[in-house]
Every structure is written in structure tokens, then in C-alpha cells.
Amino acid sequence: MAYNPLILNLNLMEVAVTTCVFSVTVPEDWGDKDVRWTLIDEITGQEFSSPGRLVHSTYRHDEPLQPSRKNSPPKVRLQAEGPIAEGRFGFGRGMMAETLETRVGVPIELNARIRRDNPFREDDERPVRVRFFKYQGPGDVVFTPDWSSWREENIGWVEAASWLESEFAYGEEKTEAVFSEPGEYILMVQAYNMVGRRTYETQDFEFWCCWTNAFIRVNVN
Q1: What is the pLDDT of residues 160-183, one digit of tens each?
Q2: What is the DSSP pairing of strand 211-220 with strand 100-102?
Q3: pLDDT tens-digit profile of 43-84?
Q4: Between 20 and 30 A from 119 (CA), which of 31, 32, 57, 103?
């Protein structure tokens, strides 16, 4: 079978901070053909390849809940009455929060409203970690506070007590973003459950569950 390769130049550190956000859209008539993901070692030239097939459930990892581990992802709202993102697809394929407008050098406030409704555990009081970072855009984005790292001191925290007050309550984590150049940007908010380990690396992600990706489009003049 012939493949038309999609060539990407990926920095491994950038991949590490954007866990599970790369996707490929295929035509409706794609059928049972493979989507092949290939990585090439720039030094040795060695290729590493993995196929995916839409009609085989073995390859699917888009479940919002994980009953086997009694776990569920956080819910994220980026506007007070806006849509709710839950799971890796966030608001759904191709959906984002309402577009924001700002100017170069002018801070814009970003507010992530967080809660978790775990249907498997009424006593789930784990906090949720929150990270803000640039996903796409022509210039640099400076966040204050800077919740973009995996390190403990650079991760926002939302305690469970803030949303356990009522079924309508949300905890909040805020930051301000300043843009260096005009253009269209996409910012990413990532919320994930604290798993209890005292490490602040990518292994804190719980296999294929449970975290939430949410995206904000910002037009900068």
C-alpha cells in the first residue's frame, strides 16, 4: 500500500509538553486504510513506524472515562457560561473557546474553571493540576504566573474542596498572557489529575486517561 507521508520537524521537549494533542483528519471515505505514523532519527536515519486503523477498536484511545481505574478527567470551562471541555478532545474535534482579542504587549487574563465529577468515586478529593502554554502562533507568549512547566513550582493547582461545595461550583486558576507579535494564536490549557506520586514529569499522566485539553484562539493586533 502506498502512503503519502506527512513530514513534521518535532522538538522532543515540545512534544513532552503537548501530550496527546497531535491528530490527523482523514476523508469520510477513508474506510479501513491505515494511517501510518513514522518517526525518523535524524542522526542514524533509522525509521520507527506504527500503523493505525479507524475500524479497529484496538487503536482507539478516546474514551472520556476509565472504569477499570475508577477515574475520570477534569472538566474545564474557559468562560463562566461557556462550553465544558472534558477529555483529550476537549470541546470536541475542531472546537475551541470563544475567540479573544488583544494587542501586542497588553496583558490578557486567562481563567480556567475546573471541576471533576468522578462517577466511580464519591470520595475523589485529588487536586487538579493546570498548565497554560502557547500551542500555535507567530511570536512569543509570556505567562504570568508561568504555569507552563512540569515542575511543581510552575504548575497551577485547583483543590477539590473548591468544586465539592456544590454540583455547580468550579475551582479557578488564572494567568495573564502577553504577546510579542501580532497574529492569530492558539493557547492550550491542560488540566490533569494529581496521581499522588511525588514526581512532576510526563509519567504523571495516567496512561490514556484522565486529562483534558482545551484551546483558546487569540487575535493579537
Answers
A1: 999 998 988 999 999 999 999 999
A2: parallel
A3: 899 998 888 777 766 656 656 777 777 888 899 999 888 888
A4: 57
Write down the residue that cell numbers 457560561 correspond to: 81
Structure letter (DSSP) for residue 210 = S
Judge whether 7 lies within some domain: no
Question: Using CB atoms within 10 A of its CB, is residue 115 exposed (0-12), middle (13-18) or buried (19+)?
Answer: buried
For residue 83, what is its C-alpha cell? 462550553
125 and 28 belong to one structural domain: no
For residues 73 and 93, membership in a common domain is answered with: yes
Q: Which helix (H) or strand (E) holds 87?
A: none
Domain count, the chain: 2
What is the DSSP secondary structure assignment for residue 66, as one 8-state letter?
B
Percent pLDDT > 70 in the chain is: 73
CB 218 within 8 A of CB 99: yes
pTM: 0.74
Contact assessment for residue 103 and residue 220, using Cβ atoms and an 8 Å cutoff: yes
Indicate if 40 and 92 belong to the same structural domain. Answer: no
Backbone angles phi, psi at 58, to 5 degrees: -55, -35
Do 74 and 44 lie in a common domain?
no
**What does the DSSP 8-state code read for residue 119?**
T
| Full domain range(s) for residue 31 | 12-59
Q: Cell numbers 462550553 label which residue?
A: 83
Place of cell 472515562: 65
